[in-house]
Amino acid sequence: MISTKHPALPRMATFLAFCTSLVACSGSSNNPETVPEPQLQPLAITATTPTDGGTGVLNTVTVSATFDQPVNPATLGGGNFSVRCPADADAFGSVAYDAATRTAKFIGVSAAPTNDPQSQVAEPLPANTTCVATVSTGVRAVSGATLASNRAWSFSTVPDAAFLEQGKNTFRFETFGDESQWSDALRMHEVIGAAVDPTTALSVGLKVDSEALPAEVVSGIVDGSISLTSPDTTVALIKLNAVVGVKGTVEQRGGRDVLTRVGITCALCHSTVDNSFAPGIGKRLDGWPNRDLNPGAIIALSPALNAEQKAVYSSWGAGKYDPRFNLDGMNGPQVISPAFGLQGIHKVTATGDGDNLAYWNRYVGVTQMGGHGNFTDGRLGSTGVSVTNGNDDQVSSRLAALQAYQLSIPAPAAPIGSFDGAAAERGRTLFTGVAGCASCHSGPEFTDANERLHDPSEVASEPEAQGVPSYASRTATGKYRSAPLKGVWQHPPYFHNGSAATLEDVVRMYNTKNSLDLTEAEIADLAQYLKSL
Question: Most CB atoms closer than 10 Å: which of 13, 100, 195, 327?
Answer without folding.
Answer: 327
